[in-house]
Amino acid sequence: MDEHGASSSRKRRSLYHILGGGHFADVMFWKNTKESGTILAAFTLIWFLFEVVEYPFITFFCQILLVSIFIFLIWSYIGSSQLIQRQPPSINDLKISESTWRFMFNKINWFIVKLYEISSGKDFRLLVLAVVSLWILSVVGNYFSSLTLLYIVFVALETIPMLYELYEEELNCAASKSGRDMKKLFKDFNSKVINKIPKANGKTRRHM
Predict the structure, then answer these.
(1) 25-31 long-range CB contacts below 8 Å, 24 or more apart?
(2) What is the pLDDT of residues 14-52, one digit of tens each?
């Protein structure tokens, strides 16, 4: 593998690990197309029902429970009469595993630790970035409902990493060019504006 390919592979791995490097990252990078597509379709359906159709949440929740009850009831009767070979799921199949809860609590603890590290001010650039990002989100939140904002964030998480992986070279080239242009702009501003501002010498400061 050449040097460019190695650096490209390192960047993909770093972005993959930034997203956790596990099942969540696999979904965001569409490693399993069927699973990622199903999750995106489910979120889109939920957003459409509650935001576009304005379906009441309590009504939706109760109807989902009613449909589930009838499905399990009919399935248990058909399974006991041996009309179909497949038995209904047992109570153990329906329980949420401890590993799932452990994963959720680990993510919550990770978020709390990261928030504390950012708030400590050890990385000032990261602190400023977090403050600016939260302020922008608070402003954007005035124009969208919470569900719509969550849906936009989720769609961005499911599309941006995949698009970055597909068009990595073009994006890196554009970012590098933009960085050079910004440095040149700041250099010109510094030489044409900042350096031309008269500075008080020592005698002037003593007379003040």
Answers:
(1) 27/158, 28/157, 28/158, 28/161, 28/162, 29/161, 29/162, 29/165, 30/158, 30/162
(2) 566 666 667 777 777 788 888 888 888 998 998 998 888
